[in-house]
Amino acid sequence: MLKPPISRMGGKSKLRKIIIEMIPEHICYVELFFGAGWVYFGKEPSKVEVINDIDKEIVNLFKMMKYHEAEISRLLKYEVSARDVFDNYINTDIKSLTDVQRAVRFIFILSQSFASKGKHFGYATTNRPSPQIFETEYLKLVKDRLRNTYIENLSFEKVIDKYDRNHTFFFCDPPYFETDGYGIEFERKEHLLLNTMLKNLKGKFLLTINDHPEVKEWYRGFNIKEVEVNYSVSREQSARGKYKELIITNY
Ligand SMILES: C[S@@+](CC[C@H](N)C(=O)[O-])C[C@H]1O[C@@H](n2cnc3c(N)ncnc32)[C@H](O)[C@@H]1O
């Protein structure tokens, strides 16, 4: 199983094995909320694959990885895990960068920040600095994985409209309901739109979401599996621990 080149809040690192085992037969695999793409990078490639995220920086990174991996690797060779470099990148106006430089900046900031939040320089007394992104061989694997994949940068509803067929499988991992997001609005309105679209889908879907009574009500009649996940992305001991998530399918 390949590890994604970035981490992302809410990434499915802990659940991906269970999710991958539940993927039904399909021809076209669509990931509507890609983030770091734990499931995509973990599963066997499908005949046709589509990855989508509304976040322009995420999409730019994977586009540049797909087409300009050699240049990204070359630039990353000169990077070092250092606080002043991190601060410089944070304070850079991305409009002044080329798309390749933007990709390097983004992967650097996420990989070198605390809990991959891209805000504060991440350091520890028990873990070494994250070296994976500086390894050329690894980035080549990522590029190869992306070779036969369409990359979209749309809101989820437009992707469903474009790709929904009987032979399509949608993996949906939206921002959690009523929890802090990614600086991108995803509230009840968006969750209800997703719910309506999934109810009317021609293809199959697997949705992962936090366990919330309202969510269970919206998806009544579908298969709902409860799973426990361990999270540890907080400095505060009180915010760590086990959380319940739901895996909802229409098959
Ligand atoms: C929970 S994360 C996905 C994590 C991913 N499954 C992983 O393993 O890393 C949710 C993602 O949805 C994206 N997003 C938010 N609103 C969206 C929308 N309307 N359409 C598509 N993507 C959206 C965010 O940018 C974020 O990357």
From TrEMBL:
Record carries keyword S-adenosyl-L-methionine: yes
Assigned keywords, A-Z: Methyltransferase, S-adenosyl-L-methionine, Transferase
Annotated transmembrane regions: none
GO biological process, one term: DNA restriction-modification system
One GO MF term attached to the UniProt entry: site-specific DNA-methyltransferase (adenine-specific) activity
Cross-referenced SUPFAM superfamilies: S-adenosyl-L-methionine-dependent methyltransferases
Pfam families: MethyltransfD12
InterPro entries listed in its UniProt record: M_m6A_EcoRV, MeTrfase_D12, SAM-dependent_MTases_sf
NCBIfam families assigned: dam
PANTHER family: DNA ADENINE METHYLASE (PTHR30481), SITE-SPECIFIC DNA-METHYLTRANSFERASE (ADENINE-SPECIFIC) (PTHR30481:SF4)
Protein name: DNA adenine methylase
Species this chain originates from: Caloramator quimbayensis
